[in-house]
Here is the input.
Amino acid sequence: MKEKVKDYLSHNKSKDFNELLFSYIDKSGYKDSEIYKKVDIDRKLFSKIRCSNNYIPRKNVIIKLCLSLKLDKHDFNKLLNSAGYSLRESSEFDLVIAYCLDNNIYDINVINDYLYTYTNAVL
Here is the structure.
């Protein structure tokens, strides 16, 4: 019975947040410094994300990382879910983010304009 559980785990476990994020960064061709500058986080926080497998940043930081990588909605949700977050349909903030993804809007300044207009908040 234990072998079945072990086999199930090995076949169904997806990448954790850290692994998934850095696989997307590697695929994008961007350097780490380009990403953390686009996201407007400091090098120390980015280093913490890179070096600490258990560290999960705030949801807004992950959203900005996804946008800076121009992830499609599927990959965006996959990365967000790997950190234990999701876009909620009951949240106007999250719905504005979803709207931007559906319409290929990745410019954080434009998104922040929409967010401020409709939710009085920004990333």
